[in-house]
Amino acid sequence: MCSRLPVCWPSGMGCSRFEMTLHYAPAQPEDADELVALRVAAMRPSLEQLGRFDPQRARARFLQHYTPACTRHLVVGGRRVGVVVVRHEAEHLLLDHLYVHPDHQGQGIGAAVLADVLAQAETQGLPVKVTALRGSRSNDFYQRHGFVLVEESEWDLVYLRQPDPLG
């Protein structure tokens, strides 16, 4: 089951460099190649640092579970700048993918999307689970937003963020 995100994120809450309005646009089956290219661009530095950059493997891993109904383009200023995939699983929301194109990173887009996902989880009383590549800058990002490491493998770190018990 897919999780639904709001259609628009209000302006005025973006980074200090500029005002932004973040829209979520539904993905279509024919968007797969564009989304794979975005994933490769966003993950390339981390994968190269680990000596594991392989665009074919990155493509296969994304397409293996590509579900357009769970996937939203991140649109700022009419341009697709990222993607988010949220799946509703039995006991948590799975933040399966959150990629912002390198040209748009550091502008608060990822934090805004994550805030929406966390708000949705709060309303459902569910934790959010996410997996990050070991050594990636995304680990610091998720830890700054209250995620706690719950599992480790050779290449990945799994985090969980519980809903606020005070709501």
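the 2nd protein, sequnce then structure:
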Amino acid sequence: MMTVRCCLAPSAIEGSGVFATEPIAKGAVAWRLDPILDQIIPEEVVASQPPHVRQFLERYSYPHHQLSGMIVLDADEGRFMNHCDQPNLDFSDPDYGVAGRDIAAGEELTCDYAAFTIGDIVHQPPRHRVHAFAASTSIHNADAAAGAG
């Protein structure tokens, strides 16, 4: 669960990313595992889901570092955090994402997936088509408004 104010925006790394909306001081906790709001799901539940749900869970969840056979699905923007080999958040304790340096407002928050991934890191193709959808929706809404007048 993100513990700082943040938002989703297009990322130069991949697709959508998580961006700080306020400065974050070095050492501040920017994310923490919240067992009440973040979902902890048995791995066998994933296999019983329809394909589109499995794909979602495979992309946005990760193995729980202490509970074998369980995965974690972040409840908020944290699931959109992108990988970076030199991240600005330190997840050496997988329960907390700590700012490794001062982070400016507007800067993308990043992590090293290896800090909380068991086995190989598998990067999947982009899932969201935000720009194309937003453009087509704006055009559709503008056309509808023009016809309504």
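The longest helix spans residues 130-148. The helical segments are 43-47, 51-60, 130-148.
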